[in-house]
């Protein structure tokens, strides 16, 4: 083994010890590694270049110091920032939206600062990180012919000095001093809100980057671009990251990110089947919305347990004999009863009777999901609708158990999805939105908006309706006129069912619906989840019909999962 | 320190690494604004209140203190922390309350970093408000000052009377001026 390799592995062990021995493979040594050294997020290996070591040696640093400092930094990218693909995607997308072609440089430098700040605050890495950063500044002064890039490196070093209360010792120019003052307001700690930090840092240095040609890749000596990482990541890694992202961002941002990733990876968007059999044409289906809720619901647990349940079955027994008729089964005939001849009405036959018996089976009820999509409910294609999410969670769990799912989507009229196991159809149906059954009280809105006296005659009704749909009109200005026809439920009488109903309440025939559900012979359990709290008229209706009234819509997924579990264990 | 840690230290297998606290100079006013905003956001009951109530609530209860234009600009950056919160889109009312109770005359609101658009920016405004980024609905409601938006604007109405004596700019172009709409 050459001397350099020994030094690299010694340095690697020392750095790993400082980071509590992370589970990482040994580093790879290259000739001219991108950026001198980098952490390969896809392979999970630190790459270090011989050229990088030699260049820093020329600046007066010892080989072992360069190697250890470089590893401390690269392990920091694995342990501190960005740590995972989720953060990288979120921040990459965020940075690109704001800083466009400068995004790579800003994100990479910000990431370096988070890691360096963490290392400089620790006693056992402080000295080495500072000497490496001092050498970097020297390197830029000598080899990089770009004043703005030097400024950024210098600014970063001064920031690290500030953190350890070290004075620079020379006069700092006015521009750098004022930037440093702003930089100290940025929180570079590992647990900080990185979007805020990245935005502030980007705003601080972006004007300096205006003067740097050919973005990205010219900063320093090249970087591993986040687009490359996203491109190289496996499908499973991307899916796992997206599953985390969907929990953190809203529907629109998620869709933007998903499209952004697919554009980078040059993948086609997944499409699902068109059209399902319903009785109403006004139900608006949206494949993108269905895809979104399908992914979002994967971020929540499935209740897929099957429990043995007592079921009533019958068995056939011989209960005696009866006169054989021509329309009866000939195999039960007793020819001896008529002297060997078969004579209808005289010859006797065995009489079979069905006797009830109790048995235990894994027979789970099917799910009937009733979802209110009148105008007072949020439009799932416009914003994250927790009622829609709750219904999707129910569908997922019942589907995983091997049961059928039926649906009623209603506003002033009800649309029906007959029992099915086609999950694409189910998601398409549950995420569809009607938006009717409500009217906006224009007089009240007018008062609220402080419209001029004669404004009502010229009001843009289309716009007002749009606002009502998006939830911008306060609820007290929305008049709801919705009934759920109990006839719609009759379509699901052939199978044993658990009913889940999501609504904001105020259904005109609420008592009738509850009474009807309670009297259903094939009902196992009904969970009514109401999203607008403080309604005294709702209560636990009967043993089989449970009503949960929520103040906060965000509680719906949790409540839905609890209700599904109760259907299994109660 | 646990017994195991004590033991490892005793046999020299565990060393203690001293770590400094990060120094971040925070604007004390910003912290106060954030606390007020959280309280305001948490107290919103849209079902029972109209926008004027929400604005008055912010103005009278939480925005009594006068903040500078810098405090308000810094707060607009911090809004990222609250993205996805219920009623976040109504933040424009809170920002307007801060602006209208400040002694400063000109303000910058940063929204380019926010995925969700903010409604009601410039509510009852009488000052100069520059917005860097897109705005949501109801911009310039009861506005008598000047609002300049670098991003996109969605006007509530084509009726200029609605905007009173305001001036609204979109990407540097005057689109509403003294009861005239030029968009």
Keywords:
heterodimer; A: 570 residues; alpha/beta; Rossmann fold; six-stranded mixed sheet; three-stranded mixed sheet; 20 helices; elongated; B: 183 residues; 5 helices; 31% helix
Structure in a nutshell:
The complex is a heterodimer of chains A (570) and B (183). Chain A is an alpha/beta fold and 570 residues long.
Question: How would you characterize the overall build of this protein?
Answer:
The complex is a heterodimer of chains A (570) and B (183). Helix content of chain A is 45%, strand content 16%. Chain A is of the alpha/beta class. Among the domains of chain A are: 1-79, no CATH class; 311-361, no CATH class; 366-437 and 481-569, Rossmann fold, CATH 3.40.50. In chain A, the strands form 4 sheets. In chain A, strands 9-8-7-12-13-14 form a 6-stranded mixed sheet, with helices on both faces. In chain A, strands 1-3-2 form a 3-stranded mixed sheet. A 3-stranded antiparallel sheet of chain A has the order 4-6-5, with no helix packed on it. Chain B is α/β, with parallel strands linked by helices. Chain B has one domain (27-41, 48-181). Chain B is built from 5 helices and 6 strands; from the N terminus they run αααααββββββ. Chain B has a 6-stranded mixed sheet. In chain B, strand 5 (173-177) and strand 6 form a beta hairpin. The longest helix of chain B has 16 residues, at 28-43. Chain B is elongated and about 80 Å long.
SSE arrangement:
The complex is a heterodimer of chains A (570) and B (183).
Chain A: H1 3-18, E1 28-30, E2 37-40, E3 45-49, H2 50-58, H3 63-79, H4 85-99, H5 103-121, H6 123-143, H7 147-163, H8 174-183, H9 194-209, H10 226-232, H11 235-248, H12 251-265, H13 287-298, E4 309-323, E5 333-334, E6 348-361, E7 366-372, H14 386-400, E8 405-410, E9 414-420, H15 423-430, E10 438-440, H16 442-449, H17 461-469, E11 478-480, H18 487-490, E12 497-503, H19 510-519, E13 523-530, E14 545-549, H20 556-569
Parallel strand pairs in A: 1-3, 7-8, 7-12, 12-13, 13-14
Antiparallel strand pairs in A: 2-3, 4-6, 5-6, 8-9, 10-11
Helix pairs in contact in A: 1-3, 3-5, 3-6, 4-5, 4-9, 4-10, 4-11, 5-6, 5-9, 6-7, 7-8, 13-14, 13-15, 14-15, 14-20
Chain B: H1 3-10, H2 28-43, H3 51-62, H4 69-78, H5 91-100, E1 106-110, E2 128-132, E3 146-149, E4 167-170, E5 173-177, E6 180-181
Parallel strand pairs in B: 1-2, 2-3, 3-4
Antiparallel strand pairs in B: 4-5, 5-6
């Amino acid at each position: 083994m050459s001397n350099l390799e020994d030094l690299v592995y010694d340095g690697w062990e020392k750095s790993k010890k400082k980071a509590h021995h992370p589970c990482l493979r040994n580093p790879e040594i290259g000739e001219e590694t991108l950026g001198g050294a980098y952490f390969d997020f896809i392979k999970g290996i630190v790459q270090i270049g011989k050229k990088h070591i030699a260049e820093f040696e020329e600046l007066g640093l010892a080989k072992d110091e360069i190697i250890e400092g470089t590893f401390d930094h690269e392990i920091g990218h694995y342990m501190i920032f960005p740590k995972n693909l989720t953060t990288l995607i979120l921040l990459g997308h965020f940075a690109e939206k704001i800083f466009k072609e400068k995004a790579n440089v800003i994100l990479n430098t910000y990431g370096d600062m988070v890691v360096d700040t963490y290392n400089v605050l620790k006693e056992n890495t402080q000295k080495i990180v500072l000497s490496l950063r001092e050498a970097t500044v020297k390197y830029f002064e000598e080899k990089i012919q770009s004043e703005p890039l030097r400024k950024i490196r210098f600014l970063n070093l001064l920031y690290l000095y500030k953190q350890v209360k070290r004075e620079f010792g020379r006069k700092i120019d006015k521009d750098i001093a004022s930037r440093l003052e702003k930089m100290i307001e940025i929180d570079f700690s590992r647990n900080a809100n990185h979007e805020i930090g990245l935005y502030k840092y980007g705003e601080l240095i972006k004007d300096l980057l205006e003067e740097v040609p050919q973005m990205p890749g010219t900063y320093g000596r090249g970087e591993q671009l986040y687009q490359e990482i996203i491109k190289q990541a496996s499908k499973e890694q991307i899916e796992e990251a997206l599953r985390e992202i969907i929990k953190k961002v809203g529907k629109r941002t998620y869709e933007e990110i998903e499209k952004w990733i697919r554009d980078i990876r040059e993948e086609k968007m997944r499409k699902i089947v068109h059209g399902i059999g319903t009785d109403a044409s006004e139900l608006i289906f949206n494949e993108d919305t269905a895809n979104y809720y399908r992914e979002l619901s994967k971020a929540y647990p499935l209740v897929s347990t099957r429990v043995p349940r007592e079921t009533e079955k019958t068995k056939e027994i011989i209960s005696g004999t009866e006169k054989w008729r021509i329309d009866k089964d000939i195999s039960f005939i007793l020819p001896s009863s008529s002297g060997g001849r078969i004579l209808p009405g005289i010859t006797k036959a065995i009489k079979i009777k069905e006797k009830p018996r109790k048995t235990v089976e894994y027979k789970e009820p099917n799910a009937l999901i009733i979802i209110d999509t009148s105008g007072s409910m949020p439009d799932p294609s416009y914003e994250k609708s927790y009622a829609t999410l709750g219904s999707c969670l129910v569908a997922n769990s019942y589907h995983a158990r091997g049961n059928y799912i039926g649906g009623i989507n209603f506003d002033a009229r009800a649309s029906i999805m007959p029992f099915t196991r086609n999950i694409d159809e189910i998601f398409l149906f549950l995420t569809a939105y009607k938006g009717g059954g409500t009217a906006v009280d224009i007089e009240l809105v007018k008062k609220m908006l402080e419209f001029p006296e004669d404004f009502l005659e010229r009001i843009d009704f289309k716009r007002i309706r749009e606002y009502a749909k998006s939830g911008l009109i306060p609820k007290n200005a929305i008049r709801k006129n919705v009934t759920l026809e109990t006839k719609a439920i009759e379509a699901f009488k052939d199978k044993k069912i658990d009913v889940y109903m999501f609504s904001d309440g105020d259904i005109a025939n609420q008592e009738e619906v509850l009474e009807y559900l309670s009297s259903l012979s094939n009902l196992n359990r009904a969970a009514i989840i109401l999203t607008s709290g403080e309604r005294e008229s709702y209560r636990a209706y009967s043993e089989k019909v449970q009503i949960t009234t929520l103040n906060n819509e965000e509680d719906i997924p949790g409540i839905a999962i609890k209700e599904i579990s109760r259907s299994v264990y109660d | 320190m646990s017994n195991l840690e004590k033991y490892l230290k005793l046999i020299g297998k565990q060393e203690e690494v001293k770590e400094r606290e990060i120094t971040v100079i925070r604007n004390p006013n910003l912290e106060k604004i954030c606390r007020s905003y959280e309280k305001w956001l948490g107290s919103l009951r849209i079902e029972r209140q109209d926008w004027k109530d929400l604005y008055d609530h912010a103005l009278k209860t939480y925005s009594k203190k006068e903040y500078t234009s810098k405090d308000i600009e810094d707060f607009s950056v911090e809004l990222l922390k609250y993205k996805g919160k219920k009623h976040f889109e109504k933040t424009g009312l809170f920002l307007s309350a801060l602006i209208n109770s400040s002694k400063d005359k000109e303000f910058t609101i940063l929204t380019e970093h926010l995925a969700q658009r903010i409604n009601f920016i410039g509510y009852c405004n009488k000052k100069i408000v520059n917005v860097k980024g897109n705005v949501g609905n109801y911009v310039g409601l009861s506005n008598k000052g000047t609002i300049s938006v670098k991003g996109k604007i969605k006007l509530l109405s084509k009726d200029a009377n609605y905007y009173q004596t305001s001036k609204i700019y979109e990407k540097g172009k005057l689109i509403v001026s003294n009861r005239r709409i030029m968009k």
